[in-house]
Design a protein that fits this description.
Blueprint: E1 7-10, E2 13-17, E3 28-31, H1 34-42, H2 49-70, H3 77-92, H4 99-116, H5 123-160, E4 166-170, H6 185-194, E5 198-204, H7 211-222, E6 227-230, H8 235-241, E7 246-249, E8 253-255, E9 260-263, H9 266-275, E10 280-283, E11 289-290, H10 307-310, E12 311-313, E13 325-327, E14 340-343, E15 350-353, E16 356-358, H11 369-380
Parallel strand pairs: 4-5, 4-7, 5-6, 7-10, 8-11, 10-15
Antiparallel strand pairs: 1-2, 2-3, 8-9, 9-14, 12-13, 15-16
Helix pairs in contact: 1-2, 1-3, 2-3, 2-4, 2-5, 3-4, 3-5, 4-5, 5-6
Length: 381
């Protein structure tokens, strides 16, 4: 069994890998409808901005397929449009920071509305339009990720000049477990490894959910990528003692000027990197760019429960009489548990996307991502 598959889909059936059980146990959860998709996203059985969008779309695709084949609630094309758009708006609220979900919902909603406006529109034609577009998302994600990896790797090697192999610092998990495959920031690491140019990836544990320790380390071992796990608090010492050639991070939402919301800890990694003159590259598909937001001050930041900070979730190999959550701090202590932080554009060396590497355009280190996307689009026409 390929444990690196974040999801398994065939029409009418979706299973997602329960990432809360990794690295000790491999279990897939059946997702039969939009409500199931909402739950596995909200409870972080699945995570990673690209994967969240894909699971939301395919979860609804399963429900829509069964509604078309077995249900009797949809009497007209208008009913189908209302059903699909209502479910998508509901799914959009599952995780507020990741913009890929919102962008996917907007694109799918537009297609569904257009299908419903056709003169010969039927329930089947509207649902089929949705299914076709949703089912194309995983393969498109893998294609995009390989390009992100290529562009990012080339940018790092260009700065490394004559150095044969590079050391990379990675935060959170941005690989096959955060996407449909290959990964974004971890895709850059994979590309370097495939080129024979990776010396070592240093993996931040990424408290409090430990996505680095549980997931990125798991991917590194599985794919035989040379990797070393470090505590988050060792980042400065790592740069001072061992030396790092570049830091890589994914993104959940990037404002028009390049300010980037990503996993909590990215900001302090970037600040330390600036002190040691280490370049920081963000890796994300164009769907992560939110051109409606001028700067990071407008980016919504999700705050999560105190329990995730004051406790550690029981691993599945422990006996049943052990509580599900094991306390590591007093229950009464006040907490602040933001899931993301905002790294200002001036701390980011470049943003690797499938259409190329975006670079700062102003003396203050800000980007014009609207112009970047417009030029990239023009070059591909």
């Amino acid at each position: 069994e390929n444990t690196m598959e974040s999801l398994k889909y065939k029409r009418g059936h979706l299973e997602v890998l329960d990432q809360l059980l990794l690295p000790t146990k491999t279990r897939y959860i059946a997702v039969e409808n939009a409500q199931d998709a909402y739950r596995v996203i909200k409870e972080m059985n699945v995570r990673g901005a690209p994967l969240i969008a894909i699971v939301a779309a395919l979860g609804l695709a399963v429900e829509a397929h069964h509604e078309l084949k077995e249900g009797d609630a949809l009497k007209s094309a208008a009913d189908a449009v209302k059903f699909l758009i209502g479910k998508m708006e509901y799914l959009k609220t599952s995780r507020p920071t990741a913009v890929n979900l919102s962008n996917a919902v907007d694109a799918l909603s537009k297609s569904v509305r257009t299908a419903g406006e056709q003169r010969e529109a039927t329930v089947e034609s509207v649902v089929q339009t949705f299914l076709t577009e949703a089912e194309a998302m995983p393969e498109e994600d893998r294609r995009v990720n390989r390009l992100i990896g290529k562009h990012g790797a080339e940018a790092i090697l260009k700065r490394a000049r004559d150095k044969q192999k590079v050391n990379i610092l990675h935060i959170c998990n941005t690989g096959s477990l955060a996407t449909a495959g290959y990964g974004t920031a971890l895709g850059i690491v994979r590309a370097l490894h495939e080129m024979g140019r990776l010396e070592r990836m240093y993996i931040m544990e990424t408290r409090p959910y430990l996505q680095g320790a549980r997931l990125t380390a798991y991917e590194a071992v599985a794919d035989e990528i040379p990797g070393t796990l470090i505590p988050d608090s060792a980042v400065a010492s790592l740069m001072a003692v061992k030396g790092i050639d570049a830091c890589v991070a994914g993104a959940d939402r990037i404002a028009r000027n390049g300010d980037t919301a990503n996993k909590i800890g990215t900001l302090q990694m970037a600040i330390v990197a600036a002190h040691y003159q280490v370049p920081v590259f963000v890796a994300a598909p164009v769907t992560t760019l939110d051109l409606s937001m001028q700067s990071g001050s407008e980016l919504p930041i999700e705050e999560r429960s105190a329990r995730e900070l004051t406790c550690i979730k029981k691993m599945p190999y422990l006996p049943d009489d052990i509580p599900e959550w094991l306390p590591i701090a007093p229950e009464q202590v006040d907490t602040w548990n933001p899931a993301f932080d905002v790294t200002r554009a001036k701390l980011i060396t470049g943003i690797s996307t499938e259409v190329g590497l975006a670079s700062p355009t102003t003396s203050s280190g800000e980007y014009d991502l609207a112009a970047f996307v417009e030029e990239a689009t023009r070059n591909t026409e």
